[in-house]
Amino acid sequence: MANAIRHKLVLAGTGSASGGAYDDVKITGEGQIIGNLDCVDFKVYGTSRMEGNVKARRFRIFGTSVVVGSAETDEAHIYGTLDIGGDMSVRQLKLHGRSDIGGTLTGDRLYIGGEALVQQDCEAETFVAKGFFTIGGLLNADHIDIRLFGPCRAREIGGSSINVKRTGLAYNLHRLFHSKASAAQDHLAADIIEGDRIYLEYTKAAIVRGSFVSIGPGCEIDCVEYTEHFEQADGSVVRQHGKV
Questions:
Q1: Are the CB atoms for 31 and 15 separated by under 8 Å?
Q2: In the chain, where the domains are located
Q3: pLDDT tens, 54-75?
Q4: Nearest Cα to 17, choosing from 39, 40, 34?
Q5: What is the C-alpha end-to-end distance of the chain, expressed in Å?
Q6: Of 208, 212, 207, which Cα lies nearest the Cα of 228?
């Protein structure tokens, strides 16, 4: 049986369309799609509202988009604002704008360069952040690399290698556009951080567990448990530590 022919869908100005299977979907004005959407390319330059789930090979948001259901895509580039009511599954994510995800976020490689709010868990092979994020549940990835440019928060963090640093450039830029007091609040906060190799700067946590644990400057940790090696920078606070 031959594959059904997919047509392009273009919404310019103000308009609406029914969901279904399409080739390319492009919204340049104010568009609404009612029902589930399955397409190859999904591009929004204006404002869109999707009354259902969205499945696309490529996701490009330059404006503002709301997905009432869940979203599934291979590649997502978010330069504007994307709000998803359910889960988001993406192979590669580059977030330069803002995204609010009501469920879980899963992917292979996640890059957070803007602001991300994930209500539940976030799981990936590689998680790189150079922006702001709040994760209501567990952040779990093999490799976690966080460059602090603003306040970041996760209830729990787990990974093979966890690297958290505040770069001098990020700190100086923040002080240029914000107050010194605001820049001083640019910490990573978590209840539990657990991994194999852990390096932390400007982190506040109740418990840190790992094989090789290095506590850098600006940290405030209640308890560190390690199996191989532990070191602590002068000026950081570790109230209790022990080899287990």
A1: yes
A2: 1-75
A3: 999 999 999 999 999 999 999 9
A4: 34
A5: 62
A6: 212
Give the number of other Cβ atoms within 10 Å of residue 48's Cβ: 26
Residue 150: phi and psi, rounded to 5, are 180, 180
Cα angle at 147 between 59 and 206, to 5 degrees?
Answer: 110
Contacts of 90 (CB under 8 A, 6+ apart): 59, 71, 72, 73, 74, 75, 76, 105, 106, 107, 110
Residue with tokens 């570790």: 238
pTM of the model: 0.90
pLDDT tens-digit map of 130-166: 999 999 999 999 999 999 988 999 999 999 999 999 9
Strand partners, 243: 226
CB–CB of 141/123 below 8 Å?
yes
- What's the rounded Cα separation, in Å, for the pair 67 and 54? 7
CA distance 206 to 141: 20
Helices (H), 74-215: 168-177, 180-184
Look at residues 103, 100, 108, 47 and name the one whose alpha carbon lies nearest to residue 73: 108
